[in-house]
Amino acid sequence: MIPELAGFITRREGRKFLRLRPAIDESVVTGSGVDEGISLYIHIPFCRTLCPFCCFNRYLFKEDQARSYFVSLRKELDFYIQRGFRFSDFYFGGGTPTIMMDELLSFIDYLNQNFTVKRISLETTPRDISEETVRQLKAAGVNRLSVGVQSFDDRILKAMGRLFITGEEAKERLRLVQGKFDTVNVDFVFNFPGQSLTQFEADVRTFRELVIDQATFYPLMASPHKRDAMERRFNRIDTSREKKFYNIILRELFPAGYQSSTAWCFSRGDRMLAEYIIDSDDYIGIGAGSVSIVKGNFFVNSFSLEKYAAMIDSGRLPVVGWRSLSPAEHLRYYLLTKLFGLEISEEKFRRRFDTGLYRKLGAELTLLRLAGVLRGQTDGFKVTRRGMYTVSVMMRDFFASLNTLREHYIERQV
Fold it and tell me: Which CATH architecture has domain 20-278?
Protein backbone atom coordinates (compact mmCIF):
# COMPACT_ATOMS: atom_id res chain seq x y z
CA MET A 1 0.00 0.00 0.00
CA ILE A 2 2.76 2.47 0.95
CA PRO A 3 4.79 1.93 -2.27
CA GLU A 4 1.67 2.34 -4.42
CA LEU A 5 0.66 5.57 -2.67
CA ALA A 6 4.20 6.96 -2.89
CA GLY A 7 4.33 6.03 -6.57
CA PHE A 8 1.00 7.77 -7.25
CA ILE A 9 2.22 10.99 -5.63
CA THR A 10 5.49 10.81 -7.55
CA ARG A 11 3.69 10.29 -10.87
CA ARG A 12 1.57 13.35 -10.13
CA GLU A 13 4.68 15.42 -9.41
CA GLY A 14 6.50 13.95 -12.40
CA ARG A 15 3.74 14.98 -14.79
CA LYS A 16 4.48 18.61 -13.95
CA PHE A 17 7.81 18.18 -15.72
CA LEU A 18 5.86 17.55 -18.93
CA ARG A 19 4.38 21.05 -18.97
CA LEU A 20 7.18 22.92 -20.70
CA ARG A 21 7.56 26.18 -22.53
CA PRO A 22 8.81 25.76 -26.10
CA ALA A 23 11.78 28.11 -25.70
CA ILE A 24 14.18 28.88 -22.88
CA ASP A 25 15.16 32.22 -21.43
CA GLU A 26 18.88 31.76 -22.06
CA SER A 27 19.75 34.26 -19.33
CA VAL A 28 19.01 31.54 -16.74
CA VAL A 29 21.72 29.31 -18.26
CA THR A 30 24.84 30.66 -16.62
CA GLY A 31 27.61 29.12 -14.60
CA SER A 32 27.56 32.07 -12.22
CA GLY A 33 26.53 30.92 -8.74
CA VAL A 34 26.46 27.25 -9.72
CA ASP A 35 28.24 24.80 -7.42
CA GLU A 36 31.63 23.74 -8.77
CA GLY A 37 30.48 20.12 -8.34
CA ILE A 38 28.06 20.39 -11.26
CA SER A 39 28.19 17.32 -13.51
CA LEU A 40 28.08 17.00 -17.29
CA TYR A 41 26.11 14.23 -19.00
CA ILE A 42 27.04 13.54 -22.64
CA HIS A 43 24.50 11.65 -24.75
CA ILE A 44 25.67 9.51 -27.68
CA PRO A 45 22.41 8.32 -29.30
CA PHE A 46 23.70 5.71 -31.78
CA CYS A 47 23.25 1.94 -31.52
CA ARG A 48 23.79 -0.99 -33.86
CA THR A 49 20.53 -2.53 -32.58
CA LEU A 50 17.53 -0.78 -31.00
CA CYS A 51 16.29 -2.60 -27.90
CA PRO A 52 12.47 -2.63 -27.64
CA PHE A 53 12.39 -1.66 -23.95
CA CYS A 54 14.73 1.37 -24.18
CA CYS A 55 13.01 4.77 -23.90
CA PHE A 56 16.12 6.92 -24.43
CA ASN A 57 16.72 8.90 -27.59
CA ARG A 58 18.59 6.59 -29.97
CA TYR A 59 19.17 6.02 -33.68
CA LEU A 60 20.55 3.20 -35.77
CA PHE A 61 24.23 3.88 -36.36
CA LYS A 62 25.33 5.61 -39.56
CA GLU A 63 28.96 6.68 -39.64
CA ASP A 64 28.57 9.99 -41.48
CA GLN A 65 25.66 10.98 -39.23
CA ALA A 66 27.62 10.09 -36.10
CA ARG A 67 30.70 12.06 -37.16
CA SER A 68 28.59 15.15 -37.81
CA TYR A 69 26.96 14.66 -34.43
CA PHE A 70 30.28 14.76 -32.58
CA VAL A 71 31.05 18.09 -34.28
CA SER A 72 27.76 19.51 -32.97
CA LEU A 73 28.44 18.04 -29.54
CA ARG A 74 31.70 20.00 -29.22
CA LYS A 75 29.97 23.18 -30.31
CA GLU A 76 27.27 22.70 -27.68
CA LEU A 77 29.90 22.13 -25.01
CA ASP A 78 31.56 25.38 -26.10
CA PHE A 79 28.30 27.23 -25.40
CA TYR A 80 28.49 26.14 -21.77
CA ILE A 81 32.19 26.93 -21.50
CA GLN A 82 31.43 30.45 -22.76
CA ARG A 83 28.67 30.76 -20.12
CA GLY A 84 31.13 30.10 -17.33
CA PHE A 85 30.37 26.46 -16.49
CA ARG A 86 33.21 24.38 -15.08
CA PHE A 87 32.80 20.61 -14.95
CA SER A 88 34.96 17.93 -13.37
CA ASP A 89 32.71 14.84 -13.40
CA PHE A 90 31.56 13.44 -16.75
CA TYR A 91 29.00 10.77 -17.63
CA PHE A 92 28.70 9.28 -21.11
CA GLY A 93 25.42 7.53 -21.85
CA GLY A 94 23.39 6.49 -24.83
CA GLY A 95 22.86 4.86 -27.08
CA THR A 96 26.27 3.26 -27.20
CA PRO A 97 29.07 5.77 -26.48
CA THR A 98 31.78 3.32 -27.63
CA ILE A 99 30.24 2.89 -31.08
CA MET A 100 32.91 5.19 -32.62
CA MET A 101 36.04 4.93 -30.51
CA ASP A 102 38.09 7.47 -32.46
CA GLU A 103 35.42 10.17 -32.03
CA LEU A 104 34.86 9.25 -28.38
CA LEU A 105 38.58 9.41 -27.52
CA SER A 106 38.93 12.70 -29.36
CA PHE A 107 36.01 14.14 -27.37
CA ILE A 108 37.52 12.97 -24.08
CA ASP A 109 40.77 14.66 -25.11
CA TYR A 110 38.78 17.86 -25.72
CA LEU A 111 37.38 17.60 -22.20
CA ASN A 112 40.91 17.35 -20.82
CA GLN A 113 41.93 20.44 -22.80
CA ASN A 114 39.14 22.51 -21.25
CA PHE A 115 38.57 21.12 -17.74
CA THR A 116 40.29 19.51 -14.80
CA VAL A 117 38.84 16.05 -15.29
CA LYS A 118 38.39 14.13 -12.04
CA ARG A 119 36.02 11.31 -12.96
CA ILE A 120 34.61 9.78 -16.14
CA SER A 121 31.80 7.21 -16.22
CA LEU A 122 31.03 5.58 -19.55
CA GLU A 123 28.45 3.08 -20.78
CA THR A 124 29.10 0.29 -23.25
CA THR A 125 27.75 -3.10 -24.33
CA PRO A 126 29.41 -6.52 -24.05
CA ARG A 127 29.96 -6.77 -27.80
CA ASP A 128 31.97 -3.50 -27.78
CA ILE A 129 34.47 -4.86 -25.25
CA SER A 130 37.86 -6.05 -26.46
CA GLU A 131 41.38 -5.93 -25.06
CA GLU A 132 42.14 -2.97 -27.33
CA THR A 133 38.99 -1.08 -26.28
CA VAL A 134 39.79 -1.65 -22.61
CA ARG A 135 43.35 -0.39 -23.14
CA GLN A 136 42.14 2.73 -24.94
CA LEU A 137 39.47 3.60 -22.37
CA LYS A 138 41.83 3.08 -19.47
CA ALA A 139 44.48 5.26 -21.14
CA ALA A 140 41.83 7.95 -21.73
CA GLY A 141 41.14 8.13 -17.99
CA VAL A 142 37.79 6.36 -17.77
CA ASN A 143 37.17 5.54 -14.09
CA ARG A 144 33.87 3.69 -14.30
CA LEU A 145 32.82 1.37 -17.09
CA SER A 146 29.17 0.34 -17.10
CA VAL A 147 28.32 -2.71 -19.21
CA GLY A 148 24.70 -3.16 -20.34
CA VAL A 149 24.31 -6.92 -19.98
CA GLN A 150 20.58 -6.88 -19.00
CA SER A 151 20.52 -10.68 -18.52
CA PHE A 152 22.77 -13.73 -18.84
CA ASP A 153 19.82 -15.88 -19.93
CA ASP A 154 19.86 -16.42 -23.71
CA ARG A 155 16.06 -16.79 -23.84
CA ILE A 156 15.58 -13.40 -22.20
CA LEU A 157 18.26 -11.83 -24.38
CA LYS A 158 16.44 -13.12 -27.46
CA ALA A 159 13.14 -11.67 -26.21
CA MET A 160 14.91 -8.35 -25.60
CA GLY A 161 16.20 -8.31 -29.17
CA ARG A 162 19.80 -8.61 -27.96
CA LEU A 163 20.88 -11.52 -30.17
CA PHE A 164 24.29 -10.00 -30.79
CA ILE A 165 25.90 -11.78 -27.82
CA THR A 166 25.18 -14.78 -25.61
CA GLY A 167 25.13 -14.85 -21.83
CA GLU A 168 28.35 -16.91 -21.80
CA GLU A 169 30.08 -14.40 -24.07
CA ALA A 170 28.93 -11.57 -21.79
CA LYS A 171 30.55 -13.31 -18.82
CA GLU A 172 33.83 -13.58 -20.70
CA ARG A 173 33.78 -9.86 -21.59
CA LEU A 174 33.11 -8.97 -17.94
CA ARG A 175 36.10 -11.05 -16.84
CA LEU A 176 38.14 -9.06 -19.35
CA VAL A 177 37.26 -5.68 -17.79
CA GLN A 178 37.07 -6.54 -14.09
CA GLY A 179 39.95 -4.95 -12.19
CA LYS A 180 40.91 -2.68 -15.09
CA PHE A 181 38.89 0.34 -13.89
CA ASP A 182 38.13 1.89 -10.50
CA THR A 183 34.56 0.66 -10.92
CA VAL A 184 33.05 -1.92 -13.27
CA ASN A 185 29.25 -1.87 -13.24
CA VAL A 186 26.80 -4.30 -14.82
CA ASP A 187 23.30 -3.12 -15.80
CA PHE A 188 20.33 -5.49 -15.53
CA VAL A 189 16.61 -5.12 -16.29
CA PHE A 190 14.09 -6.86 -14.08
CA ASN A 191 10.40 -7.65 -14.44
CA PHE A 192 10.72 -7.89 -18.21
CA PRO A 193 7.62 -9.53 -19.80
CA GLY A 194 8.04 -13.29 -19.66
CA GLN A 195 11.04 -13.13 -17.30
CA SER A 196 10.59 -15.56 -14.44
CA LEU A 197 11.77 -15.08 -10.88
CA THR A 198 13.94 -18.16 -11.31
CA GLN A 199 15.65 -16.69 -14.38
CA PHE A 200 16.31 -13.40 -12.60
CA GLU A 201 17.59 -15.13 -9.48
CA ALA A 202 20.07 -17.04 -11.68
CA ASP A 203 21.24 -13.71 -13.19
CA VAL A 204 21.84 -12.18 -9.75
CA ARG A 205 23.70 -15.27 -8.55
CA THR A 206 25.87 -15.32 -11.69
CA PHE A 207 26.75 -11.67 -11.12
CA ARG A 208 27.60 -12.43 -7.50
CA GLU A 209 29.83 -15.35 -8.50
CA LEU A 210 31.72 -13.15 -10.98
CA VAL A 211 32.61 -10.81 -8.06
CA ILE A 212 32.13 -7.69 -10.20
CA ASP A 213 32.40 -4.33 -8.39
CA GLN A 214 28.87 -3.13 -8.89
CA ALA A 215 25.45 -3.87 -10.38
CA THR A 216 22.55 -1.59 -11.20
CA PHE A 217 19.11 -3.18 -11.49
CA TYR A 218 16.53 -1.21 -13.45
CA PRO A 219 12.83 -2.01 -13.16
CA LEU A 220 10.96 -1.90 -16.43
CA MET A 221 9.67 1.69 -16.69
CA ALA A 222 8.12 2.07 -20.11
CA SER A 223 6.04 5.06 -21.11
CA PRO A 224 2.36 4.29 -21.90
CA HIS A 225 2.81 3.86 -25.67
CA LYS A 226 6.04 1.89 -25.25
CA ARG A 227 4.27 -0.30 -22.71
CA ASP A 228 1.39 -0.98 -25.14
CA ALA A 229 3.84 -1.88 -27.90
CA MET A 230 5.79 -4.22 -25.63
CA GLU A 231 2.63 -5.94 -24.42
CA ARG A 232 1.50 -6.52 -28.01
CA ARG A 233 4.88 -8.04 -28.81
CA PHE A 234 5.54 -9.91 -25.56
CA ASN A 235 3.38 -10.51 -22.49
CA ARG A 236 1.51 -8.25 -20.11
CA ILE A 237 3.76 -6.13 -17.89
CA ASP A 238 2.82 -7.20 -14.38
CA THR A 239 4.06 -4.67 -11.81
CA SER A 240 2.50 -6.74 -9.00
CA ARG A 241 5.51 -9.09 -9.36
CA GLU A 242 8.07 -6.32 -9.08
CA LYS A 243 8.62 -6.49 -5.32
CA LYS A 244 9.42 -10.21 -5.58
CA PHE A 245 12.18 -9.41 -8.08
CA TYR A 246 13.47 -6.63 -5.85
CA ASN A 247 13.56 -8.90 -2.80
CA ILE A 248 15.78 -11.33 -4.73
CA ILE A 249 18.36 -8.55 -5.15
CA LEU A 250 18.42 -7.77 -1.43
CA ARG A 251 18.44 -11.41 -0.39
CA GLU A 252 21.29 -12.40 -2.71
CA LEU A 253 23.60 -9.38 -2.56
CA PHE A 254 23.65 -8.15 1.04
CA PRO A 255 25.03 -11.43 2.45
CA ALA A 256 27.67 -11.43 -0.33
CA GLY A 257 29.21 -8.17 0.88
CA TYR A 258 27.44 -5.74 -1.44
CA GLN A 259 26.06 -2.51 -0.01
CA SER A 260 23.24 -0.39 -1.39
CA SER A 261 24.61 2.74 -3.08
CA THR A 262 21.18 3.75 -4.38
CA ALA A 263 17.80 2.05 -4.41
CA TRP A 264 18.93 0.30 -7.62
CA CYS A 265 22.71 0.14 -7.35
CA PHE A 266 24.72 -2.27 -5.19
CA SER A 267 28.50 -2.03 -4.74
CA ARG A 268 31.40 -3.82 -3.13
CA GLY A 269 33.14 -1.04 -1.22
CA ASP A 270 33.17 2.66 -2.14
CA ARG A 271 32.53 2.89 -5.88
CA MET A 272 31.71 5.59 -8.40
CA LEU A 273 28.04 5.90 -9.35
CA ALA A 274 26.43 6.82 -12.65
CA GLU A 275 23.64 8.68 -10.88
CA TYR A 276 24.75 12.28 -11.30
CA ILE A 277 21.30 13.35 -10.08
CA ILE A 278 22.41 12.17 -6.62
CA ASP A 279 25.97 13.45 -6.59
CA SER A 280 25.11 16.83 -8.13
CA ASP A 281 22.23 19.15 -7.25
CA ASP A 282 22.71 20.75 -10.68
CA TYR A 283 23.72 19.02 -13.89
CA ILE A 284 23.94 19.82 -17.58
CA GLY A 285 23.09 17.32 -20.30
CA ILE A 286 24.47 17.84 -23.79
CA GLY A 287 23.50 15.96 -26.93
CA ALA A 288 20.20 15.25 -28.67
CA GLY A 289 17.53 14.35 -26.12
CA SER A 290 19.50 15.30 -23.01
CA VAL A 291 17.88 17.03 -20.03
CA SER A 292 19.38 19.47 -17.53
CA ILE A 293 18.56 21.04 -14.18
CA VAL A 294 20.30 24.26 -13.17
CA LYS A 295 19.22 26.38 -10.19
CA GLY A 296 15.65 25.12 -10.37
CA ASN A 297 15.39 25.33 -14.16
CA PHE A 298 14.57 22.12 -16.01
CA PHE A 299 15.24 22.07 -19.75
CA VAL A 300 15.26 19.56 -22.59
CA ASN A 301 17.34 19.41 -25.76
CA SER A 302 15.90 18.66 -29.19
CA PHE A 303 15.54 14.94 -29.89
CA SER A 304 15.84 15.41 -33.66
CA LEU A 305 19.41 15.07 -34.95
CA GLU A 306 18.67 17.54 -37.74
CA LYS A 307 17.04 20.16 -35.53
CA TYR A 308 19.69 19.69 -32.84
CA ALA A 309 22.47 20.42 -35.35
CA ALA A 310 20.58 23.31 -36.98
CA MET A 311 19.95 25.08 -33.66
CA ILE A 312 23.61 24.77 -32.69
CA ASP A 313 24.79 25.99 -36.10
CA SER A 314 22.56 29.05 -35.68
CA GLY A 315 24.33 29.87 -32.40
CA ARG A 316 21.49 28.83 -30.08
CA LEU A 317 21.26 26.33 -27.28
CA PRO A 318 19.39 23.31 -28.73
CA VAL A 319 16.69 23.58 -26.03
CA VAL A 320 13.09 22.85 -27.08
CA GLY A 321 11.40 22.69 -23.66
CA TRP A 322 11.90 24.61 -20.42
CA ARG A 323 10.26 24.89 -17.04
CA SER A 324 11.28 27.00 -14.09
CA LEU A 325 10.35 24.81 -11.14
CA SER A 326 8.28 26.38 -8.38
CA PRO A 327 9.94 26.40 -4.92
CA ALA A 328 7.76 23.44 -3.86
CA GLU A 329 8.56 21.47 -7.03
CA HIS A 330 12.26 22.14 -6.58
CA LEU A 331 12.16 20.95 -2.97
CA ARG A 332 10.27 17.76 -3.80
CA TYR A 333 12.58 16.96 -6.70
CA TYR A 334 15.54 17.42 -4.36
CA LEU A 335 13.89 15.14 -1.79
CA LEU A 336 13.24 12.44 -4.41
CA THR A 337 16.83 12.39 -5.66
CA LYS A 338 18.23 12.20 -2.13
CA LEU A 339 15.80 9.43 -1.20
CA PHE A 340 17.08 7.57 -4.26
CA GLY A 341 20.60 8.00 -2.89
CA LEU A 342 19.28 6.62 0.43
CA GLU A 343 20.37 9.56 2.62
CA ILE A 344 19.18 13.10 3.23
CA SER A 345 21.75 15.39 4.83
CA GLU A 346 20.59 18.32 6.97
CA GLU A 347 23.90 20.09 6.35
CA LYS A 348 23.75 19.72 2.56
CA PHE A 349 20.10 20.74 2.48
CA ARG A 350 20.85 23.87 4.51
CA ARG A 351 23.74 24.69 2.18
CA ARG A 352 21.46 24.32 -0.84
CA PHE A 353 18.31 26.07 0.43
CA ASP A 354 19.63 28.20 3.33
CA THR A 355 17.09 26.73 5.73
CA GLY A 356 16.41 23.54 7.69
CA LEU A 357 14.94 20.29 6.38
CA TYR A 358 11.92 20.20 8.65
CA ARG A 359 11.10 23.83 8.01
CA LYS A 360 10.52 23.12 4.31
CA LEU A 361 9.78 19.38 4.14
CA GLY A 362 8.39 18.61 7.58
CA ALA A 363 5.13 17.05 6.40
CA GLU A 364 6.81 14.82 3.81
CA LEU A 365 9.53 13.68 6.21
CA THR A 366 7.02 12.93 8.98
CA LEU A 367 4.90 10.78 6.65
CA LEU A 368 7.95 8.91 5.38
CA ARG A 369 9.11 8.22 8.94
CA LEU A 370 5.68 7.01 10.03
CA ALA A 371 5.56 4.72 6.99
CA GLY A 372 8.90 3.20 7.97
CA VAL A 373 10.68 4.51 4.87
CA LEU A 374 13.07 6.76 6.81
CA ARG A 375 14.86 6.71 10.13
CA GLY A 376 16.68 9.59 11.77
CA GLN A 377 20.45 9.79 12.01
CA THR A 378 22.99 12.37 13.21
CA ASP A 379 22.91 14.54 10.08
CA GLY A 380 19.40 13.99 8.73
CA PHE A 381 17.74 10.76 7.60
CA LYS A 382 18.53 7.39 6.06
CA VAL A 383 16.25 5.15 4.01
CA THR A 384 15.53 1.89 5.83
CA ARG A 385 15.90 -1.51 4.21
CA ARG A 386 12.13 -1.80 4.41
CA GLY A 387 11.79 1.57 2.68
CA MET A 388 14.10 0.79 -0.24
CA TYR A 389 11.41 -0.77 -2.39
CA THR A 390 9.12 2.23 -1.81
CA VAL A 391 11.90 4.51 -3.04
CA SER A 392 12.46 2.23 -6.03
CA VAL A 393 8.78 2.56 -6.98
CA MET A 394 8.93 6.34 -6.58
CA MET A 395 11.96 6.63 -8.86
CA ARG A 396 10.49 4.18 -11.39
CA ASP A 397 7.32 6.25 -11.66
CA PHE A 398 9.23 9.52 -11.92
CA PHE A 399 11.39 8.17 -14.74
CA ALA A 400 8.31 6.69 -16.43
CA SER A 401 6.89 10.23 -16.51
CA LEU A 402 10.10 11.49 -18.10
CA ASN A 403 9.90 8.63 -20.60
CA THR A 404 6.46 9.91 -21.59
CA LEU A 405 8.13 13.25 -22.31
CA ARG A 406 10.86 11.52 -24.33
CA GLU A 407 8.26 9.57 -26.28
CA HIS A 408 6.37 12.77 -27.13
CA TYR A 409 9.49 14.46 -28.50
CA ILE A 410 10.80 11.36 -30.29
CA GLU A 411 7.52 10.70 -32.11
CA ARG A 412 7.21 14.32 -33.22
CA GLN A 413 10.95 14.75 -33.86
CA VAL A 414 10.94 17.97 -31.86
Answer: Alpha-Beta Barrel (3.20)
